[in-house]
Amino acid sequence: MENMPLTSTSVPRAPARRVRGRLVVALAATVALWPALGAVGLSDLTLAAVVLPVTALTWVAVLGLLDAPRPVLTGTLAGLLYGAVLVALSLAFGHEEPRPTFVVLFAAGWELTWGALLGAGAGLLGSGVQQLRGRRP
């Protein structure tokens, strides 16, 4: 038997696992905590102190314990959608006085970036949870 070099054709590759769209939407739906808890009458600081950790912990648990395929990408996409919904809600129900366009664009970019980073971080932690459980992300 002759020695064969290891090449990409000699080593079978596992098929790429696809991101689940419904999981992305379900994670992004946690954005509903903002208006739901805001209606209770919590102050802005208390609201953020409750919603942000609950969202982050929920995302890490879901991405890690449900064996989500490609958890970092899934979390990042969910974060982008989360940020987009926050921007849309802010534009629809925000302040009555007009804002300069550059302020609105900066704020929208900030929310999208923040959401994507939150999602990527949650996905990275979820990937770690999967590895601790002996699963391959």
Provide keyphrases for this structure.
single chain; 137 residues; mainly alpha; 5 helices; 66% helix; elongated
Protein described:
The chain crosses the membrane at residues 48-66, 73-95, 101-126. Keywords: Membrane, Transmembrane, Transmembrane helix. With 137 residues, the chain is mainly α. It has five helices and no strands. 25% of the residues are buried.
Please give a quick description of this structure:
This protein is mainly α and 137 residues long.
Present the secondary structure layout:
Layout: H1 21-28, H2 33-38, H3 44-65, H4 71-93, H5 101-132
Helix pairs in contact: 1-4, 3-5, 4-5
Transmembrane segments: 48-66, 73-95, 101-126
Keywords: Membrane, Transmembrane, Transmembrane helix
CA gyration radius, whole angstroms: 20 Å
Shape: elongated
Beginning-to-end CA distance, first to last residue: 36 Å
Assembly context of the chains: single chain
Instruction: Spell the H/E element sequence.
Output: HHHHH
Overall number of structural domains: 1
Please state the structural category.
mainly alpha
Low-confidence runs of at least 5 consecutive residues: none
Discrete helix count: 5
Largest beta-sheet details: none
Average pLDDT: 87
Could you give the count of β-strands?
Answer: 0
Classify the beta-strand content into a percent band: under 5%
Helical residue percent? 55-70%
